[in-house]
Amino acid sequence: MLYDLTIQNYRSFKDFQIDGLARVNLIVGSNNSGKTSLLEAIYLLVNQNKPQCLIDLLDNRGEIALTKASTLSNNRNLISPTYQIKHIFHTHQLSFDQTILLESQKDRPLSLQIELSPINRQGQLFEDIQDEELSGFELSFIYKPDEQIRIPVLDDGSVETRFFRVAKSPRPSLFITAPPCEYLTTDNITFKKLAELWDGINLTPKEDEVVRALQILEPDVERISFTSRQTSKSGIIIKMRGQRDPIPLGSMGDGIRRILTLAMSAVNVENGFLLIDEIDTGLYYEVQADMWRLILETAQRLNVQVFATTHSWDCVSAFQEALGNVNSEIGKLFRLDMKYGKIRAVEYLAQDLKIALQQNIEVR
């Protein structure tokens, strides 16, 4: 569990600290205040020796460069997606003095530096690239003093996906295993990913927990199943009480799909992390308090730390209502705002949040 977080030079954060993190953390703030960037920083930090996670984030934001043919001598016709990396740095520029620091110091210290440095052509990845394609930079992921993973940067300031798939530390640590972590964006999750999550809980008691979550929206849900149809709308079917035939998930609306995604992700990351951007997406306000009760109870029981963002007053109100039914220390709200040119985090304990909402004080 993270109790504190430092972010330097990552996207909108020049130098940012947040302390007193709870089991469940709701992050609010105006547009461009850094809510999504905060989730991304946590995702990278807890997956510190898995640099391919950066590709997930670049892809989520659509920071894709022009696709180019690979120049590997034995794979010249291979097409490999490429991604621009300059926007992950606070200055949106590539230079040798650029270093991102992500760090948590309390309890179990974690640290990740992502830095641009002059290229060192040693290593198989670099040997297979033509000189004219290289930029003179390499992107290094440093997660221990003597361990790093190096990725070549191409002449247009981009990185190729294939390098992340095969990159390894020359001295792989035997002691670093990334905890389970799921990062949910506002986009619909793919059928393949949902099927992977289902495989992780199929025929276990956690399957029943997912059914109970769906009953927040549809009390008559009895069972859920995945079929061979490879779409999330027709490949997932739900058995309803009183109905002879199962109903495709796609016929039941976006809300039940969102609850399904939240529930399956939560029960799959026991002893890990769940990151959710715009958690209220697709959910009617009247069910959001029940959704938060589900999240709070699951997080506490399965030792999951949750970070979620929202713009919604209804979502904040539902969060406060749900906190009234549990140990109030389990959840906190943090508002990100700008002061003296820096993003800061303002903490609201459960009691603070209750008073603010009663007095109609804006906390978003």
From TrEMBL:
SUPFAM superfamilies: P-loop containing nucleoside triphosphate hydrolases
Listed GO MF terms: ATP binding; ATP hydrolysis activity
InterPro entries listed in its UniProt record: AAA+_ATPase, ATPase_AAA_core, Bact_Antivir_Def_Nuclease, P-loop_NTPase
Domain AAA+ ATPase stretches: 21-344
PANTHER family listed in its UniProt record: ATP/GTP PHOSPHATASE, ATP_GTP PHOSPHATASE
Top-level taxon of origin: Bacteria
Protein name: AAA family ATPase
